[in-house]
Amino acid sequence: MDLRLLTTFSTVADLGSVSAAAAALHVTQPALSRQVQQLERQVGVSLFHRHHRRLSLTAAGHTFLAAARDVLTSSEAARSLAEALAAGRLERVRAAAPTTTLTDVVAPFLATLGPEDPLITVQEAHSAQAVDGLLDHLDLAVLTIPPPRHLASATVAELPVWAYVHADHPYAGRDAVPVAELADQRLLVLDPGSRPRTLLDEALLRATIAPREVAECSNPQVAQALAAARRGVAVVSDDPRFDLERALVLDASGTPLSLRLVAAWDPQHHAATELAAIAARLAGFCAERYPPSSWRAGL
Length: 299
Known about the structure:
Structural class: alpha/beta
Helix content: 40-55%
CATH class of the largest domain: Alpha Beta
Distance between the termini: 71 Å
Number of domains: 3
Radius of gyration: 30 Å
CATH superfamily of the largest domain: Periplasmic binding protein-like II
Number of strands: 13
Strand content: 15-25%
Largest sheet: 6 strands, mixed
CATH architecture of the largest domain: 3-Layer(aba) Sandwich
Order of helices and strands: HHHEEHEHEHEEEEHEHEHEEEHH
CATH topology of the largest domain: D-Maltodextrin-Binding Protein, domain 2
Strand order of the largest sheet: 8-12-7-11-9-10
Shape: elongated
């Protein structure tokens, strides 16, 4: 159906007269009257009652007006989207990140954005799932693993793996704990496949050490809660909770275990430049929130 006719119909309905609608749309009154009649022929019913120079909607007109305005609204949204696509702009960004990254990094970053920025929605996903999503429905992924080479990417942060303990634990007050020493404790760790768990397992393997006891947790906050209950040492990378003490985890060479956060996107994305700018802003946010000097100073 011709959008021009729907615009004419909606304007006449709002203003109540052909003369007022013609002036608003910058057309002659006879031309506008013909457009209203043409639409009524297409619809097959009268849309207006004629009262001398005034027009009022019929029952059918009232019903059809709601549908016409829905079409016009959708058309305007599509037009705006097309303009944004052509200009390489993003109205919305669909992103994904692992649980800890979403909670401690991405969500606080979103809180710093303004109404002029794209609306960024984020779903929880493991890094491998997020990479797959970039081939389908995602615009941006924040990963804890190196991205495939076909993706554009930018490092946004380096975050340490922490050993969290209750304030009365022997590790409390220490800056770092070697992985060999940590292996003597009950370790509260995340499920296999999470980046902090992978880094810990690799460090233990390189040191040819098997941990005394491991308790797996599906959520890092649960691991910290158990540490707060004096049930072991939580080995995670998320921010502190429950007033726990924390120490860096050192591998056999004395190097802190750390993970690198990387933002990745399709380099062929129509708004690749804007996605790169968002990644750069996220990196700047992380540099202020998690400066490496804040956790390397004690080494």
